Amino acid sequence: TCRTKNLKQWYQRRVRVLQAAEGMRVIPTRGQAAKEKLYMFIQDLCKQNLGEDGYRYFPFALGLFTTIGACNVANLLPYVEMPTQIIGCTVAMSTTLIAGLTIKCIAKHKLDFASFFFPPGAPVGLAPLLVPVETISFFSRAISLGVRLGANLTAGHMIMHIISDFGALMLAS
Question: Which of 43, 84, 109, 170 could make an S-S bridge to 113, C-beta 3.0–4.6 Å?
Answer without folding.
Answer: 109
